[in-house]
Amino acid sequence: MKKSKFFFLFMFLLAFVFTGTYFAGKAFAFQGMQKNKFMGHKFMRRGKMNMWMKIGMFNVFMLKKKLHLNKNQFHQIMLFKRQEFKAFKSNMGNFRNPLLAAMKSGTFNKSVFVSSITNKVKNMAEIKANFFQKFFNVLTPKQRNEFVKIMKNRIAGKIKRLEFMKKMLNKKIKAMKENMSE
């Protein structure tokens, strides 16, 4: 009987400690959220736009630091990035589904399908090219060379990660084939 009382007392204390820790953590997290709500950089508060600035291999905030951009350069690049974002957004709304356009007459029209997709890709490439043309005009020759080095390093890193993933996938495929043969 003593063992069961000790066990229930231990379980009660354990539950009490875990519950207290849980609610203390929640309160601390909520306080941290309230505290940092208005402390971020003014660009950080623009949810979707900030996410767009960091997509892919072009992170404006990282480039500001690595290329030692001055305020004027940074603001110009941010302006160009916003313009690119708006152009992508407006172009995405203008495109119709290429499959529906190709089947409009009741049969599949291969040339309409290919031209629809080709136009879409061409417009996207044109928007990206306009951005990079403006971007490179803002940079000094030294910054341009540094940007090229950064991009080459990133591509090399990406290749290295992909080769590692390929190696891991090959091991997994080999193991799965061995399991299938058993």
Q: Which tags fit this structure?
A:
82% helix; single chain; mainly alpha; extended; 182 residues
Q: What is the topology?
A:
Blueprint: H1 2-36, H2 47-54, H3 60-66, H4 71-94, H5 98-102, H6 110-138, H7 141-181
Helix pairs in contact: 4-6
**Kindly state the mean pLDDT as a whole number?**
76
Rg (C-alpha, Å): 27 Å
Strand content: under 5%
The SSE order reads HHHHHHH
- The general outline is extended
The beta-strand count equals 0
CA-CA gap between termini: 53 Å
Figure out the total of helices. 7
Q: Helices and strands: which structural class?
A: mainly alpha
Unreliably modeled segments: 34-45, 48-57
Main β sheet profile: none
- Measured as a percent range, the helix fraction is over 70%
Describe the structure in your own words.
The chain has 182 residues and is mainly α. The protein has helices at residues 2-36, 47-54, 60-66, 71-94, 98-102, 110-138, 141-181. Helix 4 packs antiparallel against helix 6 (110-138). The chain is extended and about 85 Å long. The model is unreliable at 34-45 and 48-57 (pLDDT under 50).
Short description:
With 182 residues, the chain is mostly helical. It has 7 helices and no strands. Residues 34-45 and 48-57 have low confidence and may be disordered.
